[in-house]
Amino acid sequence: MTIQNTLARLPCYLWAAPCSVAGLVIACVAVLLGAKAQVRNGTLQVIGGRLATGICRLPTRLKIVAFTHGHVIYAVSRTAMDSYREHELVHVRQYERWGPLFPFLYIGSSLIQKLKGRDPYFANWFEREAHKVEGSPFVGRD
Ligand SMILES: [Zn+2]
């Protein structure tokens, strides 16, 4: 991404900033626990470390391989980052679109799906949009 593109997207960064700050806190903890960080695709991408070890010990239903907060993407491994990057970049665009409202809208979508008897993750409107991206490991799970 060029500096011109970054400047053109400044309003998107500012709108998503409250969520990115939360992501940066997680990123700092992850880096202190041995994770590696890189700037790519206009995002801070954080990989691995002992945070990943803790996540991998969670029960299967709660295991998270990658997640996004604003312009910060975290993945438990480089393989996970490579597999889920495009999916997580859709979430970055969603943060840019909805800003600080996004976490509430995401949770609301999950609650609505749960009340309808559907899977709160796979039926979540935002996840369904992210699952449509080419190369998503979730394609075909809807
Ligand atoms: Zn997702």
How would you describe the overall organization of this protein?
It is a single chain. With 142 residues, the protein is an alpha+beta fold. It has a domain at 3-98. The protein contains 6 helices and 4 strands; from the N terminus they run H-H-E-E-H-E-E-H-H-H. A 4-stranded mixed sheet has the order 1-2-4-3, sandwiched between helices. Helix 2 (10-32) runs antiparallel to helix 4. The mean pLDDT is 91. Residues 87, 91, 127, 130 line the site of zinc ion (ZN). Zinc ion binds at residues 87, 91, 127, 130.
Please give a quick description of this structure.
By secondary structure, the chain is an alpha+beta fold. Helix content is 55%, strand content 13%. It contains six helices and four strands, in the order ααββαββααα.
